[in-house]
Design a protein that fits this description.
By secondary structure, this protein is of the alpha+beta class. Helix content is 18%, strand content 33%. It folds into two domains: 269 residues, Beta-galactosidase, Chain A, domain 5; 405 residues, Aldolase class I (TIM Barrel, Alpha-Beta Barrel), CATH 3.20.20.70. The structure holds 1-deoxynojirimycin and calcium ion.
Length: 711
């Protein structure tokens, strides 16, 4: 009898275990219900365990949680395969191919409600999410915490930044999971608005590497109406558990059935380039909801920006430090003489953009309020429509138009999201009136409504709201200090970029970015979407501008060029002063030539924290660009050009570090050489410490063939 019961039990368990494979059969996902009624999943890659049995569920407030007593009501399996075209991107077409398992669960003794867990298994990884069908016993509910586990097989190496409800602007640390100490991360004290919540908390995208050479990336896709997910590490057993960003009351999410969570994503590969090539996060997002996309375009831009970060100019017009938005007569303020966004300087930028074919000119500090914008937790800092007395907006917008250049709007909100929401329609109408079609937003400081965090449900909704509202006004948007991206640019292609990481600006006024920083970002922050990193700084040492200033960019000049290729974004700034480009016109030629929209991308060689070599083919043209970057170590590479078209001879213009260059000792020494190459060529690249190589390839003309030597 006992044996019979055992057999029945085994059979029931076997019946309740459900598996699917990826289309190429390399990945396998198993879902099962434990004897205790817990929902468990596990994942293998080529039969190697990636995620051990891990719990799924959510703790709810005031009503029974979705954590135990589960049984399966039904399972559905299906297959999906389609190819879609992004409005802009790294490749022309994206294949979205997965096998899906949908499990409908109920709980013993809790009638009239169900939970669906949907798994999608792609060749490059797994996505899964929770869905809450509308039912008699589930209407409005509050999520206390999500209990999604990622039980890893051992103490992997991790590229991590501290888990934080408000900032991602940290340096990365590489350590074992067991060694993570978020409170002692690299220079954590440099971050002014920070909310680190636990010693063992880290952010996603979390990049892991196993001792067996497997690469695992954990993040999320389609973050809408829900807080961002961080991860808590159980350091005794290499287990990760989700930790959601709370609101002012300590709750995590307020949902109304039917509802669904964002997708939890686990990208897996046995080589690092495949992680960078993954399109899983984009594929898990909904197709574009912007009907007419004709006004959305990738672009390079310049701007009145770096000079404020370096410190030769200021955002504020006067040095008064106590102003009120209403009732101040701005023309009566005493100018400080350093206000960068003045009419004359802006015209110089417009002229430079027109001469060198940049479409956009960002101008920061054009509008009133910068006198006390930061640190006061003030509700109404900016109105987004009143220029300073020395910025003639009407004249400048006409001048830009006459030169075929667009001014890019800047809306620093000072983190007062409430003020911005009240004023955004008027601000966007103002932009329409003056011919602006792109805005950079910013959320420096502590969030208002007070007590909310940058990455909580309220702000996630705010960021989506700005994407939708700008789309209504045909405006492209680039949000700084926002929640980190989760592929929503598929749904809102006017949401062209974000900051949401430690950008190049840190090199201007802090201990800076480590030489390895840009070799990590594509494996972490950029997994969710493009970054407005603002590359292109030529004048590496900043005492050139301000004697005695000790800060510098932690790369060579040539590495700054290579970033245009290794760091994908449809929006790329040439961030240095125009005067810096005038001093080095031959190196500037690469920034002028490099594209921002691509038909194809090949990550040729890469290792997180060490180096990245990427080649990209221009949209609609037979031109390629290659970028190679290294960390603090100098490295030599052999690169096969077999990605080029056969039977075509190309002229390769190679921008390389000079032999004696070094990011710290001699960062601006470079050499430019041109050769004839083809698909059989193997290039030898020599990168110095924190150096790079940037190459443009164009079909060689007859003249080129007679003029240049073969490589
Ligand atoms: C921080 C942004 O990242 C930076 O680009 C901007 O210049 C300042 N905030 C001022 O808004
Ligand atoms: Ca390294």
């Amino acid at each position: 009898m006992k044996q019979l019961i055992l057999l029945v039990l085994v059979l029931i368990t076997a019946m309740s275990a459900q598996s699917i494979n990826s289309p190429d059969n390399k990945l396998s996902l198993t879902f099962e219900i434990s004897d205790e009624g817990e929902a468990l999943y596990s994942l293998t890659f080529n039969k190697i365990e990636v995620i051990k049995k891990s719990k799924l569920g959510l703790e709810l407030k005031d009503i029974p949680s979705f954590t135990k007593d589960f049984y399966i009501i039904k399972t559905d399996k299906s297959t999906f395969d389609e190819t879609w075209k992004p409005v802009w991107g790294e490749v022309k077409e994206i294949r979205n191919n997965y096998n899906e398992l949908k499990v409908t669960l109920a709980q013993k003794n809790i009638p009239d409600r169900t939970l669906i867990i949907t798994f999608r298994l792609f060749n490059d990884g797994l996505g899964f999410r929770y869905e809450f069908p509308a039912s008699k016993n589930l209407h409005y509910f509050t999520v206390k915490e999500e209990i999604t586990e990622f039980n890893l097989t051992s103490d992997h190496k991790a590229f991590w930044i501290p888990g934080d409800y408000d900032s991602q602007e940290y340096k990365y640390t590489l350590s074992r999971l067991s060694e993570v100490d978020a409170l002692k991360g690299n220079n954590v004290n440099e971050i002014s608005t920070k909310s680190i919540f636990a010693k063992n908390g880290v952010q996603t995208p979390l990049m892991l590497k196993t001792d067996n050479g497997l690469y695992i990336n954990i993040h999320e896709a389609a973050l809408v109406n829900y807080p961002a997910m961080h991860l808590l590490i159980d350091q005794s057993k290499s287990a990760l558990t989700s930790h959601l960003v709370p609101d002012v009351l300590g709750n995590k999410a307020y949902l109304q059935a039917p509802a669904k969570t964002p997708w939890r994503t686990i990208i897996v590969a046995d080589n690092a380039p495949d992680i960078l090539m993954s399109k899983l996060i984009l594929n898990l997002n909904e197709p574009s909801v912007v009907e007419d996309e004709s006004w959305i375009y990738p672009q390079k831009y310049i701007g009145i920006w770096w000079e404020m970060h370096v410190g030769t100019g200021s955002w504020n017009y006067s040095d008064t430090n106590n102003v009120k938005l209403e009732g101040t007569d701005w023309s009566k303020l005493i100018p400080n003489g350093r206000h960068a966004a003045n009419t004359k300087r802006t015209k110089e930028y417009i002229d430079f953009a027109a001469e060198h074919d940049f479409k956009g000119v960002l101008v920061e500090g054009w509008n009133v309020g910068w006198e006390d914008w930061f640190g006061n937790w003030k509700e109404e800092v900016f109105d987004f429509v009143t220029p300073y007395p020395d910025f003639n907006l009407a004249e400048l917008s006409a001048y830009a138009k006459s030169k075929n250049v667009k001014l890019i709007m800047h809306h620093e909100t000072s983190a007062s999201a409430s003020n911005y929401e009240r004023r955004m329609d008027e601000a966007y109408r103002f932009m329409n009136k003056y011919g602006y079609d792109a805005v950079k937003t910013g959320y420096v400081g502590r969030i208002i409504p007070r007590g909310e965090h940058h990455d909580g449900q309220m702000m996630v909704n705010h960021f989506v709201h700005t994407a939708k509202t700008t789309a209504k006004y045909k405006i492209m948007i680039n949000a700084h200090e926002s929640v980190r991206p989760t592929g929503l640019h598929r749904t809102y292609p006017n949401w062209v970029a974000n900051e949401a990481a430690r950008g190049n600006e840190f090199n201007a006024w802090s201990s800076g970015n480590l030489p390895e920083h840009e070799t990590i970002l594509p494996f972490t922050r950029l997994m969710g979407g493009p970054m407005d990193y603002t590359p292109g700084i030529f004048q590496i040492k900043l005492d050139y501008f301000i004697p005695g200033k000790k800060e510098q960019v932690h790369t060579t000049l040539v590495k700054q060029l290579a970033l245009y290729v290794t760091m994908y974004s449809p929006l790329q700034m040439a961030a240095d002063y125009p005067e810096s480009y005038q001093r080095f016109p031959d190196a500037f030629q690469f920034i002028k030539d490099v594209d921002v929209d691509w038909d194809d991308t090949k990550v040729l060689q890469a290792e997180p924290g060490d180096y990245i070599i990427t080649a990209r083919k221009s949209k609609g043209k037979n031109e390629w660009f290659l970028g190679a970057i290294t960390d603090e170590n100098k490295r030599d590479f052999s690169v096969s050009l077999n990605f080029l078209d056969d039977d075509v001879t190309y002229l390769a213009t190679i921008y390389a570090d000079a032999d004696n260059a070094h990011w710290e000792k001699n960062p601006m020494a470079y050499q430019i050489k041109s050769y004839l190459v083809n698909a059989d060529t193997i290039l030898k690249l020599k990168l110095v410490e924190s150096g790079g190589t940037a190459i443009s390839f164009k079909a060689a003309t007859k003249e080129d063939i007679s003029k240049y030597k073969k490589y």
